[in-house]
Design goal:
The chain has helices at about 15-25, 40-50, 70-80, 105-125, 175-185, 205-210, 235-245, 260-275, 315-325, 345-350, and strands spanning about 5-10, 30, 35-40, 55-65, 95-100, 140-145, 150-155, 195, 255-260, 280-285, 300, 335-340, 355-360, 365-370. It is an alpha/beta fold. The strands form two sheets. The protein has a seven-stranded mixed β-sheet. One of its GO terms (molecular function) is methyltransferase activity.
Length: about 375
């Protein structure tokens, strides 16, 4: 089975997590800004789409080369083995981006790459007319950075954050990939209690349940590359079978999501049901200041309102203060809060054990980590 150069794209700041997941699947990889590159066969394409919780997309790298002129871009694109990927009737739109490059006109770059592929395909398939483009979809991207063109084909289709369970959402939904990352950056294990006191549409608790039972995040959806001849159907069947075999549906979980808004609680319940986790996650309406528990050694992960809009900030900071007071008694619990408010620690009432810079969409945030006491060692 032929090998492909693959790229798992990543949000800024999450590259190390994506790389850890790629290595856990058994592939050596290199880490760069926003991307993790590795080599693999058709199984690797299917498995990485099925299993990577924190990556945005999986792309095939068709070629990478220096291009300072349009002629160079055309000839070097045309020299790539497009017939190894695209059938004669492939539909192949070309998108592009250009950063710090002489070829800065993205529409022109897209047009030239398209034309070069068409010429290569016509020559290979011995046709003079139009290419029909009524077959499977191959989304091609030309990305220019400092005069180096990287040409890729997207294997995912919809971004990998689209798990297929979100029936509804609130105003500022957290991406599923970021939610999974927040959980994977904690010390949570499936045998510990887990609480999200700002659950919104339920993304963090649902991702925790998927992680807790080792359910593949892509199990509930389809990928654009499932329609490609270069990946046999039996590969997808085998990868889905593997995902089914590795899921631990018997793992008991103690996961709770609470929110001040009863409508969001209802949406969260519907989303959990859609994900097949209806009975596994408990949702209830509650304000964070009312949170109490008699359990020990749990983990709290929250993405509260940030007060980004003018006028919201005083109310949000008051809520941070109330949260700090309510959670101050939980000395065995570890608490992880994502917010863009740089005064969070003052409001919460104590400095974090550790902070990590992350982006929530385009908002620069900090992930404040408060580590609880360790459980006593079992003899």
């Amino acid at each position: 089975m032929s090998k492909f150069q693959l790229i798992a794209t990543s949000a800024m700041g999450l590259e190390a997590l994506v790389a850890k997941e790629v290595r856990a699947l058994g592939y050596e990889c290199q880490v760069d800004n926003g991307k993790i590159t590795f080599e693999g066969d058709a199984h690797a394409i299917a498995r990485s789409n099925m299993w990577l919780r924190t990556a945005d997309r999986i792309k095939i790298k068709v070629g990478e080369f220096k291009a300072k002129t349009f002629d160079e871009l055309f000839e070097k694109t045309k020299a790539l083995p497009w017939e190894a990927f695209l059938p004669e009737n492939a539909e192949f739109p070309v998108s592009g981006k250009s950063v710090k490059s002489k070829l800065f006109s993205v529409p022109d770059c897209q047009g030239i790459v398209k034309k070069a592929i068409v010429e290569r395909m016509r020559h290979h398939y011995k046709t003079n007319g139009w290419l029909e483009e009524n077959g499977p979809l191959f989304k091609i991207e030309v990305a220019l950075l400092k005069d180096v063109a990287t040409i890729t084909i997207d294997t995912s289709g919809s971004g990998l954050h689209k798990r297929g369970y979100r029936t509804g959402q609130g105003e500022a939904p957290l991406k599923e990939t970021l939610a999974a990352s927040l959980i994977m950056l904690t010390n949570w294990h499936p045998d510990k209690p887990f609480v999200d006191p700002f659950c919104g549409s339920g993304t963090i608790p649902i991702e925790a349940a998927l992680i807790g039972q080792n359910i593949a995040p892509g199990f509930n959806r389809e990928f654009v590359s499932e329609g490609w001849g270069i990946i046999p159907t039996k590969v997808w069947d085998e990868v889905r079978m593997e995902a089914e075999d590795l899921a631990n549906y018997d793992q008991p979980l103690d996961i709770t999501g609470t929110d001040i808004d009863h409508r969001m609680v209802k949406i969260a319940e519907e989303n959990a049901f859609e994900a097949g986790l209806g009975d596994l996650v408990q949702f209830k309406q509650m304000q964070v200041r009312d949170f109490t528990t008699t359990k020990d050694y749990g983990v709290i992960v929250g993405n509260p309102p940030y007060g980004e809009r003018l006028g919201d900030k005083p109310a949000v900071q008051r809520m941070y203060k109330e949260m700090g007071e309510a959670l101050s008694l939980l000395d065995t619990w570890s608490i992880y809060i994502l917010t863009s408010d740089e005064e969070f620690e003052q409001m919460f009432g104590k400095p974090a054990t550790k902070k990590r810079k992350l982006f929530n969409g385009f908002i620069k945030t900090d992930y404040y980590q408060y580590w609880g006491k360790r459980p006593p060692r079992k003899n």
